[in-house]
Amino acid sequence: MKRYKNPFETAIGEEQDESPPDSPVCDGGRGIDGSDVDVGLLRQVKKLKTSENMEVDLALIPTMHSIISQFTEEQMSRYECFRRSTLHKTNMKKLLESITGIKNMNNDDPRLSVVSGIAKMFVGELVETARLVMVKRNETGHIRPCHIRESYRRLKLQGKVPQRTVPRLFR
């Protein structure tokens, strides 16, 4: 059985010298809003998102708290909003019923949780890419629809958006 490295140990053990190429950190360690940003912190959070290790080690919870405690007020606000956000079960239920053809699905069906989780991850990726688009264009403020469209286009080019299996009949 292959043993994956723990994301917290890897994140803390690495050197924190430069920003990854797609990081929302500009040269000089400045964030989107012009505030100082710890490049290593952003790298650690990114690694935690993409970790394949699904086991929870209770000894690492303090390490996670120390990483989160380094967030700026704006970063913490965004993180809390992301954690609290959910997609409505009724909408996910309608989507899943239209895809699978199963009618009268229960609200506590585990498939609803899976679809909601995947959709939330996709929205998170879309927003993260939109922020990168804003940094590349040297824009600040809120994410606008043009940023979302460009983000979707980029994700589609990377193959992260599924293609239609059945062609459209009408346009």
Automatic annotation (TrEMBL):
Record-linked Gene3D superfamilies: Histone, subunit A
Q: Where is this region: Disordered?
A: 1-32
Q: Which UniProt keywords apply?
A: Nucleus, Transcription, Transcription regulation
- Please name the Pfam families in this protein's record: TAFII28
* GO molecular function annotations of the record: protein heterodimerization activity; RNA polymerase II general transcription initiation factor activity
**Is Nucleus among the key words of this record?**
yes
Q: Which family does it belong to?
A: Belongs to the TAF11 family.
Q: What is this protein called?
A: TAFII28-like protein domain-containing protein
Give the species this sequence originates from.
Brassica carinata (Ethiopian mustard)
